[in-house]
Structures are given as C-alpha cells and as structure tokens.
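User: I'm putting together notes for a lab meeting next week and I want to include a structural view of one of the chains we've been expressing. I don't have a solved structure, so I'd like a prediction I can at least talk through. The sequence is below, exactly as it appears in our construct file.
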Amino acid sequence: MQELLENLQIGFRGEILTHEPMSAHTSWKLGGPADLFLVPESRSDLQLALRLLRQHRQPWLAIGNGTNLLVSDLGVRGAVIQLGKLNKIEFLSGGKIEVEAGVQLSQLIKLCCQQGLGGLEELSGIPGMVGGALLMNAGALETEIGNSVSQIYLTDGQGEWALRRDQVDFAYRYSGLEGRGLISGARLQLKKVDPVVLAAQRRQVLKRRKEVQRVNGAHAGSVFKNPPGEKAWQLIDKAGMRGVRKGSAEVSTEHCNHIVNQGDASAADVLELIRAVQQAVLRTSGIRLELEVRLVGWEE
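Assistant: Thanks for the context. Below is the predicted structure for the 300-residue chain, given as structure tokens.
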C-alpha cells in the first residue's frame, strides 16, 4: 500500500486520504474506514488511479453520494473512489446530453427541465449521482433512467469505451454493468418539451415524493425492491415489522421500506434488521424481498 501511495502522489491530482471513515460518506452515516479514499479531479485522473490500483492488485469501489450503500463496521479494503468532481454536463443538438458520472441527478433534471428537455422529470427527488443511477437503473413512477440512455462510457484504467443502449441489460433496478468497468459518464437522448410544462411536472413530482417518503433520520431510501405485482412496504407492514428495532436501527414508522439510523446504530444493527424483515415477510407472504441497497465490506 505504501508503494501505491507513493506512485499516486507523483501524478494523481485529486485528493488522497487513508483510513477515511465511510460513515462520513454514506447517507446512513455508517461504515468503518476505507484503506484508501480517492477523489479524482478528472476522467484522466480517474484512469490513472485505476491503472495504479490494477498494477498493485488493490480492489476498488466507486461511490457517489453513498445513498444506497450499507458499509460494514469493519470498513473497506483497498480503495474507495468518490466521483463527485466528475461533474461536467454538455448540452448538444437534437436533445442529446453528455454527462459525467459525478453529476448530481437532481441538478441534471433541474437543468434539463430549464432547457426544455423531457424524459427524466419523474426521477426528481431521487438522491445520488448519475453514475449510481445508471448502475442501478434508478426509476420512479413510469420512468427509468435507462430509457433515456444512448451510450454509457466505461473505463478500467487502460482506456475508455462506450456501450450502446442495446448492449446494456437494463431491467428493474438493474443494468448488468456491475463488474464490466467503472461508469465514467453517459450520453442521454431526451425530447423537446415546453419548459413551463416540465417545471410544473417537476414541482408535482417533488411535492408527491416529499409527502409519500417523509422519513426523519439518517437512511438510505428504499431498502428492498418491489417484488412483481407487490409493494415492498405493504408486505413489510403486513408482516408487523413497522417500527421494529435492532439496537438503534429502526424500520421507519413513516415509510416501512426505509430503515433509519436513530443516532448510534451500527451497520451490523441495520443488517440484522434487514434479515429480520426478510424472514418476517417470507414467513407471512412466502415472498423473499431482494435488496435495493448494496452491501459493501461484508465479505468476511
């Protein structure tokens, strides 16, 4: 690791931290230290980091806002790469947009509505960055971000390449991109719509989301995917898990597909509660809930 650090310090222009607590970088405010925490300044900086990590045989994890991660109390071995400075947006002709992975999804949608470009407005209020939204094919109401993708750009440190929309296996909360490289950006194809109409739709979606998903405390949004033809929160409620606690982790009384850190929960508390919810729903409905959040650092 020391040799890797020395090599990074020669050419890497971004921020380099060691033993950085992941609790400072996740919306659950949970997670032990990352061996190495990198914030690249640009896509070329990102490629340099990936190339050096590969050479030194160190694993890596890319994150945005940490809004869908449950990181172990033991932390993350290898490197965490935070993509927040890869935040360029370029509006092209014909409704095309070039966007980097570190752009805030909320910022992108706001700008698109102002530009009269429709297709993403139903995703208003979803937290996180574009890269994470693409990886999990973020969706709401009748829209998924994958519907607007023309190309996705990936890198592994040895170059950058593009996948066309028909080369990506988009499905419900799934892209099939895990393990195929790091998402560095995308080209989106949107449609021309009256900006006044889009602004009104965006306001309505944000209002509805605020009403429906009003949750107090640190949380990671929806913990479980909706099974086909079902709503996860309804299954959890029917299983009697609303308000159940493990330590300071609680199934939200306001929206029971959310688990809240009520102040001093551990990641282990949250994982134990996740398993308890899954078991209760399986017992009462015969359905095994699948995670929408990602578990990180639990390999041991």
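A couple of points you could mention at the meeting. The first strand starts at residue 15 and ends at 21. The chain has three domains: 2-82, 89-212, 232-296.

User: Perfect, that's what I needed.
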